[in-house]
Amino acid sequence: MFYYELHSHTNTASLCSIVEPEEYIQFYIDRGFSGMVITDHFYHGNTSINRRLPWEAFIDEYCEGYYRAKKEGDKHGFTVLFGFEQKFVDGNDEYIVLGITPDWLKAHPEIRDMKRIPFFDVIHKAGGFIIQAHPFRVRYYISDVKLSLDYVDAIEVLNLGDEDVHSRRSYEYAKNLGLPMTAGTDIHSIENRDMVAGVALEKEIFTIEELIEEIKSGRAHIMPEAKFEYIKNFELNESVELDVYALTDDDLKLTADFFAKEYSQGNHP
Q1: I need a surface site. Which of 90, 117, 127, 263 has the fewest CB within 10 A?
Q2: Does 138 map to a domain?
């Protein structure tokens, strides 16, 4: 099997990371990985890039971590791919976007302030692939849950930055939607890191298109497997009250269904 990290942050573009891009390469090689995706926080997220920069300059600085990690990875035969973590103005829901290049970003400054559905549409038209990251994460700065249902292409069901109960809910949610599942470490530091997560593929891949195809096809297995099995069997208290909003016609509407089942499988109102 070949292992790939799908959720990582560098200190060049994510304020919350303390890892130099080059440091990731040997770290992941030592743990048996064949590659990774750099997914720094983008424009409305926890980015360290000056938003007052002209758009093209912003993208150049934003992509520095990816370019540096790729250069180091190339020296070691380790695949480094580009992605970004999208956040919108009106919420803390976040999305891993794959299949979009830095040059495409430069040519489309209009995506900066798009709402969810127009953003998802333009990314899909460009051949992109969208994973809702940690959909049931609740923290001091996240007061409710916002779900984009099957407007997206996959769900991150194991995130090592989440509590186990958050991942358990994400797993049930993905099952209800019938969408592909992914995992990631959501890594910001390599110090004292005793576990990493990602996907295990039966073949080695070298391009983002190959990675997307493996996820779409259901051939991307969640790893570490033991942790995923634990999550799937974690006791879930569905009596916990959460404000859950579902995306409908570009409006986020409160839903009484904990996992928004009534909107799954393309049954958008």
Answers
A1: 90
A2: yes
CB contact at 8 A, 138 and 145:
yes
- The CATH number of whichever domain residue 251 belongs to comes to 3.20.20.140
Please indicate, yes or no, if residue 268 is contained in any of the structural domains. no
Separation of alpha carbons 150 and 263, rounded Å: 8
pTM greater than 0.90 (yes/no): yes
Q: What would you report as the CA-atom Rg of the chain, rounded to the nearest whole angstrom?
A: 17
Q: How many domains does the chain have?
A: 1
Inter-residue contact 159 to 133 (CB < 8 Å): yes
Residue 269 included in any domain: no
Q: Which of 48, 43, 44 is nearest to 16 (CA)?
A: 48
Model confidence pLDDT, tens digit, residues 171-221? 999 999 999 999 999 999 999 999 999 999 999 999 999 999 999 999 999
Neighbouring C-alpha atoms within 13 Å toward the C-beta of 176:
17
List C-alpha distances in Å: 254 to 91, 139, 159, 171, 247.
14, 19, 25, 21, 9
Question: In one letter, which amino acid is 69?
Answer: A
Q: Residue 180: is the preceding peptide bond cis (ω within 30°)? A: no
Q: State the Cα–Cα distance between residues 197 and 187, nearest whole angstrom.
A: 9
Q: What is the mean pLDDT of the chain?
A: 94
Q: Is residue 190 part of a domain?
A: yes
Question: Environment class of residue 101 by beta-carbon count within 10 Å: exposed (0-12), middle (13-18) or buried (19+)?
Answer: middle
